[in-house]
Design brief:
Blueprint: E1 9-13, H1 19-25, H2 39-48, E2 54-58, E3 61-71, H3 73-76, H4 82-85, E4 100-108, H5 117-131, E5 136-141, H6 155-163, H7 172-177, E6 181-187, E7 199-206, E8 222-232, H8 238-254, E9 259-261, H9 279-286, H10 290-303, E10 307-309, E11 313-316, E12 322-329, E13 335-339, H11 345-351, E14 362-364, E15 367-371, H12 380-388, E16 393-397, H13 403-420, E17 423-427, E18 429-432, E19 441-442, E20 447-449, E21 461-464, E22 471-478, H14 479-488, H15 508-515
Helix pairs in contact: 12-13
Length: 516
């Protein structure tokens, strides 16, 4: 039966709404039968590099797709496998600061081949490479007809005969005609590719307009973070509170820090004004300051050129419920709110707090971060969802009154660093507030935790403050080490998860919040 086509052809960016049609239409081009790109994999690609994922649409039907990531040239110029370059298809190898556009998939539905649709997608990739000022496009290419000649010639001879058009290869011939050249032959690129006899060509297209960034200020792989170990003391007015806040912002910014983290409920001294009320009423009264505090932090983020994580404060939403929230105030003047998902029994009993439902990661000029307030870090599911979104640093503002409560936060935070292959920074308050109900005494030791591997401290401890002492803690973290860990670590917790046995997913009711 012949298939007729009209001329209505569109190339556009892939969207999550396209997934069901992709799953129905396409099998993974290099995988075993009946294996598809999963919903989570497509979502991850669209999260980390949306402009690199495209589809071809003919008469409103998706008939082709091309997927890609950005990597560093030094990672792919030599021998590597498809599993290595894609981080076992987790795409944790994607590096926005890399210089190579790496193709991980191109597929055209068999019924629509011969329409030169793949050429359109390659032209888009070339334009994207030029637009992003990347050095080249690279990928591993199959040589599916090689098995017909493997008994009589080596891969090098086969490639040369394809180049001189003495032999036709459906993949390599097409790539050569699109100005790609073969850099080398790589072995076992796709272990199950029997047609290519376990060989692949490393193909490259050079961007002649590429300008090395000698005179361009690039994102630094090293990020400097400052934590405020905040002393609880009486403050009678908001101006009094912010005199101390600005002191710390000024001090941390003097060290050229990229982030400053304040603790949970750092503004609790303002509740003393409402001590004649009941506990639940006094914290609601304190919530009147929250938006004013946020606005002042936004101004400071701009003035001191630092990203501020405000700790947390009580906040009454339009639904009338009381929540524990904080704000990421970026140094470009933008801000976003984060929420405490799990409130403690004490917060619920004494203050009537409600748990939030908004879980997300945040893009910053220094990488992707996550924020969990105190008790939330004791629930590993939340940080794992964030890790799946590409989180590199997890910030944890906390407030604990006893050492055993602090130990729960600390030990769980350190576990989150190991299992999610990220940095974790925690900051808490010290001292006491004798005139504020339910806020009697504080215990804290702020710290920065790392994964435990050869490139990191052997005990996973990057820095820690003196316990129960007001101070700042400033520490550098190297994000490039995380990229190394994801692919070449002694153990790879993210890559080695058994997706064939279990999975973590958000419920549909909260899906909209996660997508932010």
């Amino acid at each position: 039966m012949e298939t007729s086509h009209s001329n209505k052809v569109e190339l556009r960016n892939l969207q999550m709404e396209d997934y069901d049609q992709l799953a129905r239409s396409f099998r993974r081009i290099y995988a075993d039968a009946d294996v598809f790109w999963t919903h989570a994999q497509i979502k991850k690609l669209l999260t980390i590099f949306p402009e690199g994922q495209i589809v071809i649409v003919v008469d409103d039907k998706i008939v082709g797709c091309a997927l890609s990531i950005i990597v560093d040239y030094n990672k792919v110029k030599g021998d590597h496998t498809y599993a290595q370059v894609t981080g076992n298809e987790t795409f944790n190898t994607h590096n926005p600061d890399g210089n190579i556009l790496y193709g991980i998939e191109v597929f055209i539905h068999p019924d629509y081949r011969g329409m030169r649709l793949a050429r359109r997608m390659y032209e888009y990739r070339k334009e994207l490479c030029e637009k992003l000022n990347l050095k080249a496009i690279m990928f591993g290419g199959r040589i599916p007809n090689y098995h017909l000649y493997a008994d009589t010639m080596r891969p090098k001879e086969y490639i040369e005969k394809v180049r001189t058009r003495e032999i036709y290869d459906p993949v390599l011939t097409f790539q050569l005609s699109n100005d790609f050249h073969v850099r080398r032959v790589i072995r076992n690129y796709l272990p199950n590719d029997e047609e290519s006899k376990h060989c692949a060509t490393l193909l490259q297209w050079d961007n002649i307009y590429y300008q090395p960034s000698n005179n361009v200020v690039e994102k630094r792989p090293t990020v400097r973070i400052g934590m405020v170990q905040w002393q609880m003391r009486p403050y009678h007015t908001l101006d009094d509170l912010f005199e101390q806040v600005e002191f710390f912002v000024d001090s941390v910014s003097d060290y050229k820090s990229d982030f400053i983290l304040f603790p949970e409920y750092f503004n609790a001294p303002l509740m003393a004004k409402f001590n004649d009320m009941g506990e639940a009423q006094s914290i609601r009264a304190m919530a009147q300051y929250t938006e004013k505090i946020r606005d002042r932090f936004v101004e400071m983020a701009i003035s001191y050129n630092i990203n501020i994580i405000t700790g947390s404060m009580p906040y009454v939403k339009d639904d009338g419920a009381l929540y524990n929230v904080g704000f990421l105030c970026r140094r470009d003047g933008s801000y976003e709110m984060f929420e405490k998902i799990h409130v403690t029994p004490d917060e619920q009993k004494c203050w009537g707090l409600t748990g939030g439902s908004h879980v997300q990661t945040f893009d910053t000029d220094c990488g992707r971060i996550g924020i969990l307030i105190c008790y939330d870090v004791e629930f590993p599911e939340l940080s794992r969802l964030m890790a799946d979104e590409g989180m590199q640093i997890l910030f944890v503002p906390f407030m604990t009154d006893t050492k055993n409560a602090y130990s729960r936060v600390r030990i769980c935070a350190q576990a989150r660093a190991i299992e999610n292959e990220c940095y974790v920074a925690i900051a808490g308050s010290v001292g006491n507030l004798p005139r504020v109900h339910n806020m009697d005494i504080q215990y804290a030791q702020s710290a920065v935790f790392t994964p435990c591997d050869f490139a990191f401290p052997t005990d996973g401890m990057r820095a820690e403050a003196t316990p129960n002492t007001e101070m700042i803690l400033v520490s550098d973290v190297d994000l490039s080490l995380l990229n190394e860990l994801h692919t070449y670590g002694a153990v790879r917790n993210l890559r080695d998860r058994r997706g064939d046995l279990y999975e973590l997913k958000i419920k549909p009711a909260a899906k909209q919040d996660i997508e932010g």
